[in-house]
Amino acid sequence: MTDYYAFIAGKKVTADKKLPVVNPATEELLGTFPECTQAQLEEAVSSARKAFVLWSETDGEVRVKALHRMADLIEANAGELARLLTLEQGKPLKGRGSEFEVQGCVTWLRATAGMSLPVKILEDSDQRQAFLYRKPVGVVASITPWNWPLLIAVWHLAPAIRVGCTVVVKPASNTPLSTLRMVEIFNEALPAGVLNVVTGDVGRKLPGHPGIDKVVFTGSTPVGRKVMREAAAGLKRLTLELGGNDAGIMLPDTNINRVIEGVFWGAFINGGQTCGALKRLYVHESQYEEVCRALTEIATGMPMGDGLDDNNLFGPVQNQVQFNYVRELVDEARERGARVLCGGEARDGKGFFYPLTLLADVTDEMRIVKEEQFGPALPIIKYSEVDEAVARANDSEMGLGGSVWSGNIEQAKIVASRLECGTVWINSHGSVAPHVPFGGVKSSGIGVEFGIEGLEEYTVIQSMHVPQH
Q1: Domain 246-433 in CATH: superfamily?
Q2: From-to residues of CATH 3.40.309.10 in the chain
Q3: Could you tell me if 271 and 353 are in contact, meaning their C-beta atoms sit under 8 angstroms apart?
Q4: Sequence-ordered list of residues with C-beta below 8 angstroms from that of 182, at least 6 positions apart, any chain
Q5: Catalytic site residue 410?
């Protein structure tokens, strides 16, 4: 067992009280992290405010070099970070697991370093010139979840640092260790105070703290609403990437053999513990049983176990609460008549392992359709008419992502445009790219991440009017 430290004003800090982190594959104690105090929270915010004065005025090329140096440091410590991530989060090292996530951090850091927000000339007439400047918003509070701890932290902090903001990160208490280590590593590339991390319940005070100018939060919709309420008093800028109950629609002309692996991974990447994963699959009645058989064949052949074993492609659900929730939703569906194609029963022994589960003959009234399961279970829903499928897909308070699967791309684009979601994929689901904006509508969030539009979220505008004479 190892003690880990918070990082404030360029230095390691700890606290009298330590909190435990449990390995979800073994349920054994992995390490401890500090329950930061109110005084330490104040020091973190204060150090970020002091650092902002200089960092916001630093030449853009210095910040670009810092991001590339951070990427270099991730690469140099990739093995340590990936292993620690597997131990605390549960995802496997290989496949689309921890090594994949760590490499994603490198990709996003370098891509963000290549983005810029040049001054815009809005008018250049005989009377005047008008310019639009983008200025860093200030001190950013980054609140991250337990499903992709490292990558989502980088999604938050990279654009902030690129435009000249400073950051206080608060990682999820289920998975703080890899983030603590990553922030310590990043501080080798940054002036003291630019990037700080606090842990424990005191982090809940960040959204309402008067020294914070912007809050970026990734997590559930209920917690997102609470963050928004707390930030409202200070009229803080917000970026909220919240829950999703993404629907996928397979049109009747879909070539099943060609797309079925994409459907599977769209639903089960990270064991289904992804906001933008495929959570509901609508299949035309003419192909329904064939799709059920094809997905079952894939799912039953996937090895699940401790992520440190290179042979495993799936690990445990990250925590006991989420494990119980997934089991509850599957049990409720079974009791109401759903057909369990595979999985559906938790295995005995240590670890929060829930098998890959496919449910057929599911109805819209079942909780596993209405609620976001956020785990390794997928309901497969039969439909008769495409208009009906679109209406049922849109019948949700969520609107993060969606997908359409078809052999006719133009027809798929027409159907995709009717889905009420911030991102829609055709013949894939869940892929993201650093240059393509990503964000939700309805109760799935406010604002966007990635791309120039995501970079702009960390700035405020200043218009300048200059007379020509």
Answers
A1: Aldehyde Dehydrogenase; Chain A, domain 2 (3.40.309.10)
A2: 246-433
A3: no
A4: 74, 81, 105, 150, 153
A5: no
Q: Per-residue pLDDT tens for 87-111?
A: 999 999 999 999 999 999 999 999 9
Beta strands in 112-250 (DSSP E): 120-124, 128-136, 139-143, 166-170, 195-197, 214-218, 237-241, 246-250
Residue 129 burial by Cβ neighbours in a 10 Å radius (0-12, 13-18, 19+): middle
Q: Name the residue among 73, 86, 5 with its Cα closest to residue 305.
A: 86
Hey, what are 109's tokens?
């850091």
DSSP string, 63-126: HHHHHHHHHHHHHHTHHHHHHHHHHHH---SSSSSHHHHHHHHHHHHHHHHT---PPEEEEE-S
Where residue 1 falls among pLDDT bands split at 50, 70, 90? confident
The continuous run of DSSP H or E covering 403 comes out as: strand 401-405
Tokens of 154: 């980088």
Q: Give the architecture (CATH level 2) of 2-242+443-467.
A: 3-Layer(aba) Sandwich (3.40)
Please, where in the chain does CATH 3.40.605.10 lie?
2-242+443-467
Mean pLDDT of 5-12: 98
Place of tokens 């569906």: 333
Q: What angle do CA 135, 187, 238 make, to 5 degrees?
A: 40
d(CA 231, CA 336): 41
Encoding tokens for residue 17?
């009280």
Residue 387: per-residue pLDDT: 98
pLDDT tens per residue across span 163-194: 999 999 999 999 999 999 999 999 999 999 99
Question: Can you name the residues that pair with 402 across neighbouring β-strands?
Answer: 247, 424
The pTM for the full model equals: 0.97
Catalytically annotated residue among 99, 241, 372, 457: 241
